[in-house]
Automatic annotation (TrEMBL):
Species in which this protein is naturally found: Trachymyrmex septentrionalis
Lineage summary: Eukaryota, Metazoa, Ecdysozoa, Arthropoda, Hexapoda
GO-annotated cellular components: extracellular region; ribonucleoprotein complex
Full protein name: U4/U6 small nuclear ribonucleoprotein Prp3
Coiled-coil intervals, chain numbering: 168-195
Domain of life: Eukaryota
Length: 1173
């Protein structure tokens, strides 16, 4: 060590001398900069240290430097370590050994001796060589390069941990405390200022620094907005102009998501324990109390209780003490037992109730809280006047149960009405129906026959308040006095319910039995004369009361707010005069059927099977079959009628307008006649829980035109009117008094604050008028024909068709630029400008939305184009001939487009083969069947055609036909019943291009468009409740008596359902859970909800149930239409050449011919344009 220190000292001295020589000569070294920055020989051997006389050495050194520089520049040497002399070392002020640059030098080098350390050092050197190796391109040029050894890829650096500064949260808490104190002080100063009368007080300045803006705040302009900015991304205070019409696929201001670090707030739900669970909870509480007392005794906090001694446990408890003095111990035990007995008796005496308290307790148990509603029961007894004992029991039990009500004694009808709580009603019902033996008494009927006495529960339900006081008897010699008594208490309907069934109580039981037996065996054609007379009498009385109620409603001016969403919904279901007349007849028949079912005590299944076999002569003005057949023979068989009558020679009314829908399955009503099914969840609840929350995604290949055409077809096939008052006023069913509540109201229950949604029942149909009016389940009216005959354009009645015609050259009336004729008197029009009135067409729903109006305009122009061309080719044809021929051609085009272009994309190719829907390619169609009924089914009209809702998008784009740029859009909210925009120049073309360029909504079962669920027919300008379209369709299915979803699966040969789990594979799991949460049983699922929940199958956009219903529907339409465009060998058939031209028709041609200035159109208008065509 000493020697090393000495050598180091010498080197330091030599280095000092060298530095002094350099400073004296002031010679600076010039470093070499080549490809790699390396020290050169010249920088190591300073020229100032060379001898000036030794010029040979200097030249050699210069030549050597030049060679080294050339080799370094050419890259031949690579990273070569040039040997140099040891660098002189010096000591700094701290005594450390440093070099010229001041870097510390480690003189002692540690050399590994163990093999493990040697191998470790070699590995480190090898890794260093790899890092300093050549680039990939240079390495691969060498012959010894191994491809398995690659350059180490770049690694992402580890993110350093960020720690909070010490005291950060303490400072934050201090700031919050200071801010709170300042706010408290400011409030005190403000209060003092108000008390002293000072108008204002100086606010304290906040010491706390201003909080920074939250990072979650959404700025006005984001980076993705640069697409619509004219001058690029502006500064914060810089104003810029915006290009509103630019289309981009980016999302503007996306909804912020909850940070994943924020904990979810727990949702607390009330738990309702059963009786067994409450008992278990009490037992656990007692056990905890005992354990707590034991712990206190064990810790000495409480004295242990004396043992409960008895003679039986004396020896076991006291042990040796009992043996020492048994007499004394026994006396002590008996004394203790007597003391406990006395304490128990004193406690019982203290708790014993007095006589008044016992009576009060008994009354309190019998009386129930009726503030939220009163339970009411109505009983009808055949004879109560002549039976004192039964009368005493009826009155006494009602008073003992603290029931209110009245007993009406009338010779033909004794009515008992009681009001109270649910438990009170249950006890009284057992008395009236079981405990009192009414059959023991034999009474006389009107004919003097002996019949047993009888008690019938007419009705039980709830009421908001009590209408009677203490129960009393009232004797009425005539029916009018009894009615007036109930009317005085505002419950006249109680008497109507009881008295309506009393008429048939006096009918001979033998007659009824014979009648039922006859219906069961062979089917009766008419009712027995006596029964028919009684029913007719009671029906007349009931219909008179019905008319009185309607007159009272009209006098009270109870009606929907004009312009409300429910008002516009009523405009889509308004009645014609013919439908109103039919509905009155149907209500009369329905009333008779209900009375007959109640009198004969039929079940709903018996009523649905037996009533259709019963005929009643209640339609004297109905058309005669032979008369109608003769009228059909007189009509021109070359062309179809507007009403659809006379299409089928054997059944002239099949498929005609103002006829009832047919049914694939028998209806299911609660009473077998007309009462909708009960014990079901609210239609609004089903809509909001099952159909809400669906994503609004674009369909991958279906255009928006598909949804518009679907709605147009639905309007061509079905139009179900809803009940109205005789003065054509639409019914108001929500927020009305009982006196103004119409019997045909069927409102939808909804959650608060909505509470109620409007719905009036569909108009009933009296049945097949050609075979006489028959009793049976309620049927509904179709106001349009069931054939594909363009009834929305031409109308379903001859009067409407004449109004739409111009009377010249077979043309239809138009206005301005080939638009439908104006209808200035149309009530439901939202067009405020009289210069742009709503349109008038063959269907009152023409103005429902711009897309639907567009379809009317297209086929209107097509008809006039065809008529003008026929006029040019046949100038000798008159107006009627031109009109009928043009109408026949345009209808044929519609039928061909529907089955050739539309149905393949909706039903799929597989369904076309299954239901025989493929069109004939050559020649005529030979499948017409005179036995096929083309009448639309109730299930298709009320549910199947609703598939269009799943395809309807929120908005309809308006695209310029020349530039193909989007110029705007129309939502369903702003466009209903307001077609004034179609008067604008180029509006038709913008709608056409938008419908063929925009996409339909992608059906995502079971979700629907949120506008249809919450804001349909609502423009946001009123406070009225919006229309939930899905709830309306669900309620309509129940109103029409459609069987539940499980029945339709059996009808369509699909697997039966017994539990919700059976839906797996057809319905998504989350949808199954939604259905399970709403419906109590899988058998309660509505047809619409179940069918929309199914996943599409094969190449269709529909589930298997809707596919089945619509496949059968369109097959029947084709097979049962005598005027189908492919049919031959009929007077009105097309020739083969004409049929070939019809088969060339496409929807794209209709659009091109009838647009204003369209420049282009894709060949397949319903689906996405194929870029490879």
């Amino acid at each position: 060590i000493r020697q090393m220190m000495a050598n180091a000292q010498k080197e330091i001295e030599e280095r000092k001398r060298a530095l002094k020589a350099i400073k004296q000569e002031d010679v600076s070294a010039k470093p070499f900069k080549g490809r790699d920055t390396l020290p050169t020989v010249g920088s190591m051997y300073n020229q100032g240290l060379l001898s000036k006389t030794d010029s040979d050495k200097a030249r050699k050194i210069a030549a050597l430097q030049a060679q080294i520089r050339n080799k370094l520049n050419s890259g031949l040497l690579g990273n070569v370590n040039v040997p140099d002399k040891p660098t002189p070392l010096i000591l700094d002020e701290s005594g450390r050994t440093v070099d010229i640059t001041g870097k510390e030098v480690q003189l002692t080098q540690v050399v590994p001796t163990l093999k493990a350390n040697i191998r470790a050092k070699k590995r480190e050197e090898f890794k260093a060589q790899l890092q300093e190796s050549k680039g990939p391109e240079e390495i691969q040029d060498t012959h010894f390069f191994d491809n398995r050894i690659g350059v180490k890829p770049a690694m992402r650096g580890k993110r350093a941990l960020k720690f909070h500064e010490p005291g950060k949260f303490q400072q934050l808490a201090e700031r919050m405390r200071m801010k709170t104190q300042l706010e408290k002080l400011q409030n005190e100063i403000s209060q003092i200022a108000r008390k002293t009368g000072i108008s204002s007080a100086t606010k304290l300045a906040l010491i706390a620094p201003k909080t920074e803006a939250l990072s979650e705040d959404v700025p006005n302009i984001e980076w993705w907005d640069s697409v619509i900015l004219t001058g690029g991304y502006p500064n914060e205070n810089e104003l810029t102009t915006i290009k509103n019409l630019t289309i981009t696929n980016l999302v503007e201001h996306p909804t912020q998501m909850r940070p994943p670090t924020d904990p979810l707030k727990p949702i607390y739900m009330p738990v309702f324990l059963t009786k067994k669970e409450r008992k278990k909870l009490r037992r656990q509480n007692r056990r905890e109390t005992w354990k707590e007392e034991q712990e206190k005794i064990r810790l000495g906090l409480e004295a242990p209780p004396e043992p409960k001694l008895r003679i039986s446990n004396l020896m076991r408890v006291l042990g040796t003490e009992a043996v020492q003095d048994p007499t004394k111990i026994e006396a002590h035990v008996r004394q203790q037992m007597a003391k406990r007995l006395k304490a128990h008796e004193d406690a019982n005496a203290a708790r014993r109730l007095t006589a008044d308290q016992r009576r009060e307790k008994k009354a309190r148990k019998l009386k129930e809280d009726t503030s939220l509603g009163v339970y009411v029961s109505v009983y009808r007894i055949r004879d109560l006047v002549n039976n004192a004992s039964k009368k005493f029991k009826v009155e006494t039990n009602a008073k003992q149960l603290y029931l209110t009500g009245c007993v009406m004694l009338f010779r033909d009808c004794n009515v008992v009405v009681v009001e109270g709580g649910a438990k009170q009603q249950a006890k009284y019902k057992r008395l009236m129906m079981h405990r009192i033996k009414w059959e023991e008494d034999i009474v006389k009927d009107n004919d003097g026959n002996d019949v047993p006495n009888r008690c019938v529960l007419v009705w039980e339900g709830t009421s908001k308040q009590r209408h009677f006081g203490e129960i009393k008897f009232k004797v009425c010699p005539i029916e009018k006095m009894a009615r007036e008594h109930f009317k005085k208490h505002q419950v006249e309907h109680y008497w109507d319910l009881a008295y309506s069934g009393a008429v048939l109580d006096n009918t001979d039981e033998i007659t009824i039995r014979r009648f039922l037996a006859l219906m069961t065996l062979v089917g009766a054609t008419t009712l027995p004369p006596r029964m028919l007379h009684d029913l007719d009498k009671r029906t007349n009385l009931s219909m008179e009361r019905y008319s009185q109620a309607e007159r009272a409603i009209m006098n009270s001016r109870t009606q929907l707010n004009r312009g409300s969403p429910s008002w516009y919904l009523g405009a889509s279901h308004e009645m014609t005069e013919g439908a109103q007349n039919l509905s009155r007849k149907a209500l009369r028949i329905e009333t008779m059927a209900v009375m007959l079912v109640e009198a004969l005590n039929m079940s709903s299944k018996q009523a649905s099977l037996i009533l259709p076999t019963v005929a009643a002569v209640l339609c004297p003005d109905s058309p005669n079959f032979l008369r109608l057949v003769s009228e059909c023979k007189k009509s021109d068989v070359h062309y179809r009628t507007h009403t659809g009558r006379c299409n089928n020679p054997l059944h002239p009314t099949w498929g005609a307008a103002l006829e009832a829908y047919v049914r694939f399955l028998p209806p299911e009503y609660e009473d077998g006649v007309s009462l909708p099914r009960t014990n079901l969840p609210s239609a609004r609840e089903v809509s909001s829980q099952v159909h809400a929350g669906g994503l609004d995604l674009k369909h991958p290949y279906l255009m928006a035109l598909t949804a518009l055409f679907s709605q147009f077809l639905a309007h061509d096939l079905a139009h179900t009117p809803r009940m109205e008052l005789p003065d054509r006023t639409r019914l108001k069913c929500c927020d009305v008094d009982y006196e103004n509540f119409h019997p045909e109201c069927f409102p939808i229950r909804a959650e608060q604050p909505i509470g109620c949604m409007e719905y009036s029942r569909s108009a009933p149909h009296p049945g097949n008028s050609l075979q006489g009016c028959k009793l049976g389940p309620r049927q509904q009216i179709n106001q349009v024909s069931s054939y594909l005959d363009l009834s929305p354009l031409y109308g379903s009645f001859e009067e409407t068709a004449k109004t739409l015609r111009s009377g010249e050259d077979g043309l239809l009336n138009t206005q301005r630029k080939n638009l439908p004729m104006a209808s200035a008197k149309y009530e439901s029009c939202r067009s405020a400008n009289k210069a742009f009135p709503c349109f008038f067409s063959g269907d009152s729903r023409v103005n429902e939305n711009p897309g639907l109006t567009l379809m009317h305009v297209l086929f209107l122009r097509e008809h006039n184009l065809v008529a003008m061309e026929l006029k040019r080719l046949n100038p000798h044809w008159n107006d009627e001939k031109l009109y009928q021929e043009a109408r026949k051609i345009v209808i044929a085009e519609l039928q061909h487009i529907t089955y050739n272009e539309f149905l393949p994309v909706i039903l799929g190719e597989h369904a076309l083969d299954k239901y025989s829907l493929r069109l004939t390619q050559r020649g005529y169609f030979r499948g017409y069947d005179i036995r096929a009924d083309a009448t639309l089914s109730n299930s298709a009209a009320s549910a199947g055609l609703f598939f269009v809702a799943a395809l309807t998008p929120k908005t309809l784009d308006l695209v310029d036909s020349r530039s193909a740029l989007k110029s705007g859009e129309r939502t369903l909210l702003s466009a209903f019943y307001a077609p004034q925009e179609l008067y604008e120049a180029g509006a038709i073309d913008r709608l056409i291009v938008g419908a063929t360029a925009g996409h339909s909504r992608k059906p995502l079962p079971p979700g629907l468009n949120e506008i249809l669920l919450d804001r349909y027919f609502h423009d946001g300008k009123t406070n009225d409740v919006a229309v939930d379209y899905a709830a309306q369709i669900i309620q309509q299915g129940r109103d029409h008596g459609l069987p539940p979803y499980v029945r339709w699966r059996s009808f369509c040969d699909l697997p039966n359902l017994t539990d919700f789990q059976d839906l797996t594979g057809t319905v998504a799991k989350d949808t199954i859970e939604r259905l399970r949460a709403v419906y109590k049983n899988v058998g309660d699922i509505d047809l619409v909800t179940g069918a929309l929940s199914e996943a599409p199958i094969f190449d269709s956009v529909l589930g298997p149930t809707f596919l089945c219903l619509l496949g059968r529907t369109f097959r029947n339409i084709r097979l049962g239409d005598r005027y189908w465009y492919e049919n031959g060998n009929t007077p009105g058939s097309f020739t083969i050449k004409q049929l070939e031209e019809i088969r060339k028709s496409t929807m794209a041609q209709i659009l091109c011919r009838n647009g204003d200035r369209l420049q282009w159109m894709q060949p397949r208008a319903f689906i996405l344009k194929d870029p490879f065509l």
